From TrEMBL:
GO terms for molecular function: ATP binding. This is ATP-binding protein. PANTHER family: HELICASE MJ1565-RELATED. Gene3D superfamilies: P-loop containing nucleotide triphosphate hydrolases. Residues 24-214 form the AAA+ ATPase domain. The lineage of its organism: Bacteria, Pseudomonadati, Pseudomonadota, Alphaproteobacteria, Sphingomonadales. Residues 306-332 are annotated as: Disordered.
Length: 488
């Protein structure tokens, strides 16, 4: 079966093709100002490849829901579901290989970013036996991977940018091929854009965007003017899935349409100035009637109904039966989790990674070994990982009972250094130096450790003592132990 699709015509009438197999391995970046035909290009790509590969569309404007009628995509209204439901849907989509459109147009931008992030993370966290190939199309990608902080909350920006980075940087090995579209390259995070090897560049006018587009296409600066001269629906394509040299393409027609329309001209009303003034001021003091137009509301499908819709898709029939795995005993689960935690803690590179990334890595490792993580949340993981970093292999061991109870009063981000100091005191060993504590704290700044020690001391958790010989010891008064004195 051929995996090439035609997206349009070149300058001499020859067809411009995209190799879908190559695209799955190399990803695609589409750029074009508003009105350049960017969404039309995505629609053409989705329509032509609908029978070849699973498609997952992140749709912030609800423009791609029309794919459902013609091609059988399942529409998921992001506003109708909670966080846990979105995560479950993402997992089932990978399991059943369903083509879906996640419509986010009913949500505010902050909620759009959080919903998309949870959805993408669920796709990313699928078990290895469900890493089927899929195109993940994200329209208006600059919203979900902004280059700089904007009006949205820092939390929404952080988790959304993390999910987009995972998609573009690490998604290929999990079968997820990112296709991202943006109005402005300057507003898109560079580490997300840089992972694409294929490019379709449409009309743009700002010099900074033209310069970046020309650089990605391997064009000289003086050739960048060509990007400004492109017409509506014209794109310059380059990449292993498209062409080895930049090729101009006029995107072909599509079968489905968007709900948004390009504004056009229409005759102005012929009323005189006096008539218009009277129309504007008539019954001005009376509460105006509500317009007859009612915004259509998508019906919220129950999880069971939506699950059935996803599972009954065309791809579901071809799926082999999933092998049954015996459920491990709770004690076996716990022992295996501790083994994974301790293995991660021994990798010093993990100390500089965010807790979100580490938790994702942990859940993936657990699922790879068939371990259920339903009873574990991110807070429990952070505290367990901090104990593992300090060499406390089993926090429920009787030896650590008092220490673990005391640690409940320590903030999560300070827990690993506190555990390390307390364990050294319990063993009557020297307190690790500031450089070592800084590494455990996930920083390269010893000054932050000084501030951390001051904070723990003011909170009554530790006592720092420096004698006249310049030797420092750190005591943990609640446990009645002190580290050996050593030069600070």
């Amino acid at each position: 079966m051929s995996a090439n699709i035609v997206i349009g015509d070149g300058p001499h009438g020859q067809p411009t093709e995209i190799d879908i197999k190559e695209l799955l391995a190399t990803r695609l970046l589409v750029q074009g100002n508003s009105g350049s035909g960017k969404s039309h290009l995505l629609r053409r790509l989705l329509e032509e490849s609908a029978s070849l590969v699973q498609q997952i569309v992140i749709d912030p404007e609800g423009d791609f829901v029309s794919l459902a009628e013609e091609f059988g995509h399942v529409v998921i209204d992001g506003a109708a579901y909670g966080e846990a439901e979105i995560v479950k849907l993402g997992a089932r989509i990978r399991q059943h290989r369903a083509s879906v459109v996640l419509a986010l147009d009913e949500l505010e931008i902050d909620s759009q970013m959080k919903c998309a992030a949870q959805f993408l993370n669920a796709l990313f966290d699928a078990p290895r036996d469900q890493w089927y190939p899929a195109l993940v199309v994200v329209d208006e990608a600059q919203m979900f991977a902004p280059a700089a902080a904007g009006e949205v909350s820092e939390e929404a920006r952080r988790i959304s940018l993390g999910a987009m980075t995972n998609l573009m940087c690490r998604g290929r090995k999990r079968g997820l091929a990112g296709v991202i579209a943006t109005q402005r390259l300057a507003k898109l995070a560079k580490n997300v854009a840089a992972e694409a090897s294929n490019f379709l560049m449409g009309r743009t006018f700002l010099d900074i965007d033209m310069a970046r587009a020309a650089d990605l296409l391997g064009m000289e600066r003086r050739q960048a003017e060509e990007i400004r001269d492109l017409g509506r629906g014209q794109f310059l394509g380059l990449g292993p899935a498209i062409s080895r040299r930049p090729v101009k393409t006029q995107i072909g027609s599509v079968k489905t349409g968007a709900k948004s329309v390009t504004p056009g001209l229409m005759p102005l009303p012929e009323a005189s100035t006096e008539d218009m003034r009277e129309l504007l001021h008539d019954n001005l003091h009376v509460e105006p009637e509500k317009p007859d137009f009612v915004r259509p509301v998508r019906r919220r499908m129950e999880m069971e109904e939506l699950d059935q819709s996803i599972a009954s898709g065309p791809a579901a029939e071809a799926l082999p039966p999933r092998p049954e795995r015996p459920e491990p005993e709770p004690e076996e689960n716990r022992a295996a989790m501790l083994e994974i935690l301790n293995a991660m803690a021994r990798d010093e590179d993990s100390l500089f990674q965010s807790s979100t990334t580490l938790f994702q890595d942990f859940t993936i490792r657990c699922r790879m070994k068939g371990i259920s993580v339903r009873s574990l949340d991110a807070t429990m993981f952070r505290r367990g990982f901090a104990a593992a970093v300090a060499g406390i292999e089993d926090p429920e061991d009787e030896r650590w009972f008092d220490l673990v109870n005391l640690a409940k009063h320590v903030p999560d981000d300070a827990l690993a250094p506190f555990y390390v100091i307390a364990r050294a005191a319990m063993d009557n060993e020297p307190c690790p130096d500031d450089d070592r504590l800084a590494k455990i704290y996930g920083t390269s700044s010893p000054r932050r450790i000084q501030r951390l020690l001051d904070y723990l001391e003011k909170d009554g958790l530790i006592v720092v003592r420096t004698d006249f010989a310049g030797k420092r010891s750190v005591g943990v008064p609640d446990l009645g132990v002190t580290t050996a004195a050593v030069e600070a």
